Structure formats: C-alpha cells, structure tokens
Amino acid sequence: MRREAQFGGAAFWTLRQLIINYWALPLIAVIAAPVAAIVSLWLGQHGASEFLLARDLAPVASAETAKELASTATGVTAAFLTLYFSITLLVLTLAAGNLGVRLIDRWIDKRLVRISMAGLAFCLVFSLIILAAIDPAADMADVPLFSLLVLIILQMINIAMMGVSLHDLGRTMFVDRSIARIGRDAATPNLPVTAGEAWRGEWAQTIPARRTGYVEGINYAWLAKKLSDHPGRLHFCKAPGAHVLEGEALVLCERDGVDPHYIDKAIAIGDFRSDGQGPVFFIRLLVEIAARALSPGINDSYTARAACDALTHAMAGQLGSWVDRADQPLYADDCRFEIPGQDFAALFAGPLATLRQSAADYPAIAARMIDNFGRLLHHDAMMNRSPELRAFLCTQADALADHALAQTQQHLDRETLESARRNCVGEAA
C-alpha cells in the first residue's frame, strides 16, 4: 500500500501525533480497566462465581487466600510495569546514542511496545479494583471467584507478553535490523510521479503557509477530489520534509479561486522532521546512520556499509520517479499538480552529497558505495531508463571517487578507489 494513500492531511497528522506515543494506548487501557472489572464483578454476582463453585473450579480455597492472590497479582504487575518502562527508556537511550535520535520516532511507532505497556496498565488497574472488592472475612459464596479467574488469565497473558516484548527490545539494539527496515520503507514510492511540461505562464494565486515548520505530508488524492472542477495547474512549492516559513509560498495556482482552506487541510506542517514524511525522511535517516557510524566516537564501518547497501536498495526502488531536467515532476493521478522535489534527483542528490562528505575519509566505505552505484547501473531495473539517470548515477560515483582520492595518501587505497571507479563509471560510459 502506498504511504500517500495512508496520509490524510492535517487532520490525519494531528490524530497520528495523538495516537503514536507511549501514553495514548495505556491511557485507554486505564479507562477501560474499571469498566472491565465492574463487568466481571457483576457477572460473578449473577451466576458466574456459583458456576465455578458448583463444579469445584474455584481458583482459591478461602476468602483470605483470594485477598492474598489479588494482592500478589497487583504487586507483580506493578513490578512488571516499572521494569518494562525502565528497560524501554534504557534501550532507547543507548540505541539513540549509537544510531541517532530520529530513530526514536520509529521505535515509538512499534505496536508491540505500546500494546505491552497498555496490557500491563490494564492489568494493574483491574487487579487493584478486584483487590478492593475482596473481603477476607467473607464466605466463599461472596468472594468474586470469576474476577479472580479472569485476573489469573490476565497475569498469564502478561507474563507471556513480557518475554516477547523484552526480546523485541533487545533486538532493537541490533542496528542491521533497523537499517533493513528503513531501507525497505525508503524503497517504497509514496506517490506516483510522472514527467510533463511545466507551466510557463504567470501564477494567478499564491497560497502562503499558515505557520512555520516542516511539511509532514500532502494528501494529493483528497485535494484532487476537492478541486475536481478547478481547470488550472497547481504548483506545490514545498515537498514533504521541506522547511517552510510562515507566509512563504506554499502553493501557486494557474487560475484564481482555490480555497486556501483546502490547502491547509491537505498539507500538514509539523515542528520537526519525522517518520511520517515517508521516503524523504527514510533516505536521510540512512545517511545519518552511516555518518554517525563513521564518526570517531563510534567508528563502526560495518554499520556504515549496511546503511550504504540499504540506500542502494532505496535508489533501486525509486528509479521510477526519475524525471529529466527539461521536464516537470507531476502527480501521475492528476497531472494538474506540479510536485517539484519529489522526483529521484530531488530525493537523493542532497543525501548522497552528505554521504560523500562523510565517506570520503574512509576509502573502504567510499569504494563500497562506488561499487553499489555500479551494481545499480548494471541492474535489470536500469534497462530502458533515461540516459540522464545513468549520467546522474555516474556523476555521483565519480564525485565520491574524486573526494575520497583527495583525502587518502595510501597507494593501496587509491588503487582500490580507482578500480571501483573504472568498474562503475568506465563500463557504464
């Protein structure tokens, strides 16, 4: 499924911010737990507990034991919740220090972590209410046996979930797993791009940004429906991931009459770059991981190599968005929309320049990336592609080789770089 289809404009972005966090689902669980506890107590009073007693299925032998069981369950759940929350913060802190703080947004988005915290919160509140409802001096007929049985089942589920969740948190520190997932996301086009002729006339209407921030996403499909009767071109000045100032041109219209309210609803602007921006964010995230891995404080060349390979995977997946310089990128589902900044060159030119600056001091990484350009040039996906696309990739490989050769003085490294350049640029030419 395309990410563009999942993005619902400014309202969707606001809702996503309210949902994708560590407190929303646990808050819902805390609210739902008293309702579930009251329902279980009511069911126990209306035959469920009698059913258990009649068939000798009572989970406890006395009211005092029931009180101890509920008290123990409450303490265990509270300890689990504290432990899991502490380990989560510790893992995220260590992983962010090694890989980059922008990965936190992806980890918070993981459903398993949020479901685990919500389950523990639900069980804690549920057990507290059941504990309060038990009278240790009451007869067995008045003990909420059904609720205790539900509590035992919840504890079993939470214990199993703790094992799974702690394993998942431990795997979070395995950098190659995160890199592979980011590479797959970056290789998935977020919207269909086609090439066409740009509008050469004057723009009749300028719609400015209502606030300063980063463009989080644009719901082109929704906007196309709302403007189905509008006859003119729309030029989107800012692509997802771009920074915009309040009052700066956001959309230019060939014809007057576009309601700015539609633009405000279709384009979400946030305070920072985030995972919701799609490939433009993922591509830069891969470069950030590679650059951080090559920093003196971390010096992890194999992580940088994995990030370079994932970046090559992303380029292979985005080849279909290439647009020659003489053409204008257009939204393929509605060619009235000009979308500069969302074609192949716009997605990769900046990040590849940043990667070149970081990799130039590391001949092994530079040679690996040059080899990757060569592999991409000879890949089946490059058949019948634009000569300008081939020239773009050759230029990137050549620039990386020149920069790395200027930095290294070791003759073996220079030979490796020259060989990689010949294999990539020479054969492609």
TrEMBL record:
The chain crosses the membrane at residues 20-43, 78-100, 112-134, 146-167. This is DUF2254 domain-containing protein. It comes from the Bacteria. It holds the Pfam family DUF2254. Keywords: Membrane, Transmembrane, Transmembrane helix.
